[in-house]
Each structure stands twice: as structure tokens, then as C-alpha cells.
């Protein structure tokens, strides 16, 4: 009785839920039926599925023997066995290798012919390119670039030499200035030179000569005009050296500048060689046409095609 009551209550609930619009109803029986059919279809598909397995070693040997039998049957060699069969198989392998080698050789020859044809076409194209205005312009620009590169290099060499020249000139001016300052503070005194052996000492200039014994009138000799003593030149302690410094220091300075002068003379000799090489290089570049005026790039063939190209190229004068 209780079970009957529960069933009746569920039925009442279901009917109460389904009351009203049927589109909003809830049906468990339809969903269960759909799931059942899906499970049955999955089971059927699993039964029909075929699983591939790896063949055993025995099956592989049997298949290999069967394949060899079929090959012998096709070639009519079922009656051939033993050494004769091995000899035939060896000959067959040799023929296969020979055919393979011939095929490779034929392929290589075909590739070689293709390369030769490509080279021939490129040669024709290059020959045509050398006649074009574009090639002539490129050659001119390359020459101009080489010329500019050399001129930049030479300008750097020349600037370096001028810098060395200015340095020596500055050193010489400073040395000469220091010498004048030193002489103004400590002038050299004239010392009489000793007479050579067998000769009399020369008469001192600037004294009266007695001419009465020669029958003449004694006259007063012309006195040598003595140069006024050089005034002591001022010197700057920050630039010049003290004129009262030891004589040994002055001697060392003089010897050092003499060595510097000798080195500079050698530098001038080397510089003359460099300038000579520069003259030859300029002559070579001139022979290559790098100092000529800009040529006309258009030819009879491409004058029409290049007529629209910009003619405002960079001109430069020959040096």
C-alpha cells in the first residue's frame, strides 16, 4: 500500500510538472532511450574494429620463401637450384648494379649539359651587359671611387708630413730663440788666434801704422767699428729656459737639436721618395682614365631606352 502511494505521488508530481505548455516538459524516459541506443552503437563499432598486429618471425620467413618462389615461377627457374641459382642471382644483381650506374651516369651527363647551357646563356648575357649603358656607368663609378680612395689616402699622408714639418719648424724656432737669449746674456769674447808655426802673427787691426820710415806721412789707421753689445733679451720662465743654466745643459740641448736636425733631413729624403711614388701613381691612374672628364654613357643601341634616365650625374674636374 505504501509503494502504491509513493508511485501515485510521483505520478502526480510528474503530471503536475507537465501541466501547462508541453514545450517546457521534462521526460526522463526519452533521455534514457537515447543513451541506450548510443551505447549499443559503440559496442557494435568496437566489435567490427580490426586490430593490426606485427607478424611473427615464422610468418616472415614463410612470406619471404613464398615471394622467392613466385619470382622463380615468373622467370621459369623452378627447376634451377643450388650453385646455378646463386650464379643466376649474382648475374641479376650485377645487371641491376650496371643499370643503376648507367642511370646515374646518364643523370650526371644531363646535369652537365644543363650547366653548360646555363653557362652559355650567362656568357651571352654578360657580353650584352658589357655593351650596356649601365655597365659603362658602373665602370666609371668604380674608377672614380678608386681615384677618390687614393686621393683620401694621399691627403692623409701629406697631412702627416706637414704636421711633422710644423713640429720641426716650431722646435727650430724655439731653439734659435733660446740661442739668441743665451748669447745676449753671455756674449762670446774675441780671443786672439795663435799664429801657425813658421809664420808671424797677423797685425792687429785698428791701430796706427808708422809710415815715416817708408817716406810717407803717418796717418791714423781706420778704427774698426765695434758693434754695440747686444742687450740682454727678456725671457719667459714658462716658455724659455734660464740663460744662466749650466753650460753642460746647454751643450746637451745643442747636441740633441743637432741629432733632431739630422733625423729631419733623413725624413726629407724619404719624403722625396714618397712624392716620387705618388707622381708615378697619379700617372698610372691618369692612364686608366680616372682623371678624364665624364664620358657619354649612351650607345646607339640603348640610347632610346636610357633617354629618360637622369643625366644629372656628379661631374668633377680633372686634377
Automatic annotation (TrEMBL):
Biased composition (Basic and acidic residues): 44-75, 161-191, 223-247
Keywords, in A-Z order: Coiled coil
Record keyword Coiled coil present: yes
Endpoints of the signal sequence: none
Domain of life of the native organism: Eukaryota
Region (Disordered) residue spans: 1-23, 43-75, 161-247, 286-319
Coiled coil location: 85-129
Protein name: Uncharacterized protein
Biological source species: Eutreptiella gymnastica
Biological classification of the source: Eukaryota, Discoba, Euglenozoa, Euglenida, Spirocuta
